[in-house]
Every structure is written in structure tokens, then in C-alpha cells.
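Anyone opening a protein record will find just a pair of labelled lines. A complete record is shown below as an example:
=====
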Amino acid sequence: MPFFNYLPAYELNRSPRIIAAFDTDFLRNLGAFRRSLRQGERFTLLLQTGWSVLVPTFAEELKTRMAEAHQMFPEARIVFLVNEKEAIPILKDSAECVWCHQNAFLDPGRYPVASGTRLFDAIYVARITPFKRHALAAKVPNLHLVGAHSIRETEYFNEIMRTVPYARWDEKVNSWLVGRRMAKATCGLALSAIEGAMFVCGEYSLCGIPVVNTANIGGRDLMLPEFSAFRAEDTPESVAEGVEHWKSNPVPPQEIREAFLRMAAEHRACLDDLLASAAGKRIKVPHKLGIRCRLLPHQKLFHGLRRRG
């Protein structure tokens, strides 16, 4: 059982507490949440979908656990924030659902716009785990990988390092500095076929670097400016072609950032309205809604769940 740290809650004249969490962090740990809350306490729970609900087995698990959650927390208002519009009819009988894309919750101030000499042809910020499909980057010559791996993923990590022995690898870059690293790359990579909306894709766009993107479900495409996304096939050759495309056809970084911010505005407005209805006034949104962030900019606003293990 991982160790969880529960952060202070925002309250206004005894208004309901607001809790933000990834769906599985909450639904797979209902007992831990029950122990952290007063019996019968009213609260609003925002559940961010962290994986594609279009995967039937995952959707069925969510719906089953949601039935348990409603029994355990009958006093809660539960709202799914979905990244894929198609998720709404799948989950609408389990809770309120709104299309409110997670990548709109990034703090733009953390991400500098790319400028000057690019040190890397491509950067891939992603956990070194099989579903991220790092092998598709095997033919990118000047590659920077940023990502940790667990003990269980050591064999996969060693295999990838043998596949890209020339790549620079950093296990971790401070969250406040990762944008600076992205801004030193010609483009970013997004190579998974199935996951959630991939915060990193939004981070690439805020830094003004285009993306080499493979076909996927999870929602990341819905917040990628079309003119800055190269759709690669699921082969190392096609991914390398995409990187070369962006080297030969640069896009002004500020245009990418501004296009992303225009797309994000609708979702930020949706979240602002949702939070105002729960809190009784407009409140500032923490970076990534505070979900799994080690440091919350506004700890008094949210009672968030963060994983250490």
C-alpha cells in the first residue's frame, strides 16, 4: 500500500471541501479517503481521468468502483473531468461528466518559450515503461530521454538503453526546470498508443516546440495544435522522419504556444465555473490542479492526494 500525504482543504464559511485526484488514486483507495474525512462531511470531488476510458476493461473497473464510492460517500458531489468527449456517454451514469482537458491546467509561467540553439533533435519526457514505447525513438540520432523507472521495469530500461546507447538520459529533472530542458530541443516525442492525455504534450506546446505524435487514444490529440503535430507511423523510421521534418520545417515557437493557450482557454473557463459553483467564489487553479504535485502553489485551496511510492 503506497503512502499518501493528505494536504489541507479549502473552506469558505463552512462550504464543502474541494478534493482533486486522479480517478484511480481515489477509487482504488476508498478506505484511505474515508479515514481522512469526517463521517458525513460534504465535499466536491473532481476526478481527473488518468487513462483512456475507451479501454473497455478500464471503463468497467471505474464504473464498478464508482458504485462503491457512492455507497461510501453518499454526501459527495462527484464530477469526472474527462479528456475525451467519447468518455462522457460511457461514464455519465456513474457521475457528472464534463469535457475539461487536463492539459489546460498547466501553469504557463513554468514553461519558457524555446529560443536560441537547440541542443537536442528531440526530447521524450516519459517514464521508462513499456507503454511509452521508447523503442520507436531508436533512429533519432540526437535524443534526450527524461524519465524514471521502477525496479520491476529495470529489464525494460536496460533494453531501451541498449537500443539508444547514444541518447542522453536523466532520471529526473526538477518540475520547475523541465520546461527549460524542453526548450533546448527541436521537437518533443509522444509515442504511446494508449494512456491519458499526457501532460507532457501540453508542456511541449507551452515551450513552443512541435511534436512527433503517434496514433493514440487518451485525449492528447485534442489539445495539440494541428500545425505543430507530425503524425508518425508506429515505426522507428517514421518517428525519425518526423524529427527530420521539424528540423527542416521549423515553426515559430510563440505561434505554437499561443495556439495552445487559445485551445486551453475554453477548458480553463469550464473549470473556473465548476470551482466557483463549489466554492462560492472564483478561486485560482493550482498547477495541474495540484494532482500528484510535490508542492502545491495554493495548499489551502485543495485537499489533494499525492503518491510517494
About this structure: The CA atoms of residues 58 and 159 lie 28 Å apart.
